[in-house]
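To the team - adenosine-5'-diphosphate complex, inputs and output below.
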Amino acid sequence: MAKKQFKAESKRLLEMMINSIYTNKEIFLRELISNASDALDKRHYLSLTSKDHQVDRKDLTVTLTLDKENRQMIIEDTGIGMTDEEMEKNLGTIAKSGSAEFRKTLEKAEDNIDIIGQFGVGFYSAFMVAKKITVESLSAEGGPAHVWISSGEDGYTISECDKDTIGTKITLDLKEDTDDEKYSEYLEEFKIRELVRKYSDYVRYPIQMEVTKSIPDPTDEEKTIDTKEMETLNSMIPLWKKSKNDIKPEEYNEFYKAKFMDWEDPAKVIHYSVEGNISYTALLFIPGRLPYDFYYQTYESGLQLYSKGVFILDKAKELLPDHFRFVTGLIDSDDLNLNISREILQQDRQVKALARSIEKKIQSALEDMLKDDRENYEKFFDNFGLNLKYGIYKDYGINKNKLQDLILFRSSKEGKYVTLKEYTERMPEDQKEIYYACGSSADEIEKLPVMSRIHDKGYEVLYFLDERDEFVTQIMRDYDGKQFKSVNTSDLDFDSEEEKKEKEEKTEANKDMLEAMKDALNGNVKEVRISSRLKDDPVCIVADEGLSLDMEKYMANDPMSRGQGMKAVKILEINPDHPVFAKLQEVFAADPAKLNDYADVLYNQALLIQGLPIEDPVAYARKITDLMVSAK
Ligand code: ADP
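Output:
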């Protein structure tokens, strides 16, 4: 029989498993039992939906056998089984674990043994403890049965074999013990019992093992004799059916990690039951980290759906609104039809009601977290905040009210996170609007010319560090009746009456000069005017109503809107208290034509400060040099 080779990536993984020095090798049992449990789920579901595949629920089991003499451990299930083609496909390559993230990690992983624990790499993990693996299987779809055999790197064989019962039997020939590693412990009852309890207690099918029990000897009361007896090792109650009070946090965490393929504890567990029109139990998790592909199309969101404890569907995305699509977990309802399909799911009224109820629960769970566990919430927001913001501007802001109190912004108050509620509650009385400034970092924003004046006024500014933030607030329009206002818009108004008057006078006195500067700038600005927002800097650019400066920047970089050349209407503001202002007056009085160069240089400077490109950098540089040379 010809040996087949593993696919390249699988081979790497396999090598890692075989040579693994990972200390937590015991997880192999969890992985194999979890595969068996999935196979049992599939068979159970098939039997409920197809007359030709009837099976008694009580016959759906996993049986563990420990054979000390032959150093073998056998894991046998009565699940769906595999055909030879399926064996080839499933065991010849990494299945789920073949995901891009895994591959990437693998590439970098030369000696990073941790990834085994991180990914829970399925079937192949058995090679951490076994030198040879034999998989015999008969598919529920029909025979003949096949056996897959592999001793590791040199490939595998698949051939027909005798097996009368549907399901899969995996025989592990355990490695020899070494000084560091005692593989024999996997042949000890107590060890296996402990591992099943630890990792697989919630599996909803009996995991059985023949165990040795000591009973009193009937012929001699003083003595005991050993008998063999089948025992179910797991409690079988699905975790979500247990009472919340009986569940330890570690149990939730272990369950989450094993079932939803994560290596980090969840940020939040949401476990509840609802009685009513549609009764259901939900066990939901907010992951503690951002899945690497969360913002890619490959990411599949959705909840697992169970009906009366029977698994029906994975990744039912109809149960989750898009803005909460980071939530994973499961829903178990007695009121749903077992035959429910993906198509029905999309239209079903009950499902819609269910989804609404789930949405509300997630929302209030997040609100609680924000209120009671701020640190954790901020971490969550770092991971998934962007998705909440998407939720606000999607569909023209239809979900604004649900989400606006869940988003956070960093602010000029020590750079800390603030909610809109907190911001508006602590606004000084004379502040009418919510101020924000866009930039790629707090530092960049703090350097904006307008900031020192704002600090003097005692106003707080939201940092819009994400280029989408401005879109979000444009969709929102206002929060609690207060408009969002960029510190770079032309009509920013926080002058006192006195200051206004002073500004008007200065404008009047310098009218001709300002007009001349505007003309010098050839239509690049709508107006040149005296500023009251500047303290230390000579000039700044602000945008008139309409497109903001930051949107112009965003669109210039965005492939979708590049080329349309949309520009903000700009206004150049000059600080009348800056020495350069006096210089301008002097130049204008002596040689009005020379003012052109000054206007041009100042305009370009303002663009640069704002992070906007200048049109002709060479000309700008030359003018600066000329000015330096002519300076006395
Ligand atoms: P994963 O479980 O992450 O998909 P595995 O490498 O553990 O990856 O398993 C690969 C595939 O092999 C499974 O998805 C399943 O289709 C199949 N498989 C593994 N064990 C069994 C089993 N006991 N019965 C039926 N199919 C199985």
